[in-house]
TrEMBL record:
It comes from Thermoanaerobacter thermohydrosulfuricus (Clostridium thermohydrosulfuricum). This is Predicted site-specific integrase-resolvase. Pfam families: Resolvase. Keywords: DNA integration, DNA recombination, DNA-binding. The active site is at 67 (o-(5'-phospho-dna)-serine intermediate). InterPro entries: DNA-bd_dom_put_sf (IPR009061), IS607_transposase-like (IPR041718), Recombinase_CS (IPR006118), Resolv_N (IPR006119), Resolvase-like_N_sf (IPR036162), SSR_resolvase (IPR050639), Transpos_IS607 (IPR048046). One of its GO terms (biological process) is DNA integration. Residues 59-216 form the Resolvase/invertase-type recombinase catalytic domain. The keyword DNA-binding applies. One of its GO terms (molecular function) is DNA strand exchange activity.
Amino acid sequence: MGDINMKAKEVLELLKISRPTLTKYVKEGKIRVTVMPNGFYDYNEEDVYKIFMKGVERKTYIYARVSTQKQKKDLENQIELLKQFCFNKGYKIHGVFSDIASGISFEKRNEFFKMLDDVLAGKVERVIIAYKDRLSRAGFELFKHLFRKFNTEIVVVSEVGNEKLDSQEIIEEIISLLHCYSIKFYSKRKIQKIRKLLESEVFEDNSQESRTDTDK
């Protein structure tokens, strides 16, 4: 959230308060404001969410994923592993979310987006996953950064996993994320441009790795 600001209407709707109460919060220094050129106020998002989250029960969610229907038993085992982990840690589980979809098929991960809605609403204290790639292979750090902005911790039960990422899969996953989050803002032409940039960067990285291996 940081220096991002909100409009008065957004603050009133989120906090479910009246305008006089909002004015009171500003006078008390609870919400910082930025005076815009037109004389209106923009309200500091971080301050707004601090107030919002005081009245919200913070939840613990677990999220599991497998790629195909044939792995359904693996999905069940994954969920049991996460439940046992929560039991051992003393975490009360408020929600179990799971998807059967490949890592690059974000549009098919309906449960993930249900969970994400609650994260973005500031309702989730922690999300527990078995491995990093259950959430995202290429975009894990991106989600970690995003969740942290809403005071949500991602807990990874095991660091064991497929750490070697296929270059094409990285590209496809990022493109899939762009389609899910930014399809309204990116034309097909821009998507293709981004794809080419990513491919060139991955090719360059692979070339550097090859040169390094040769030097060894």
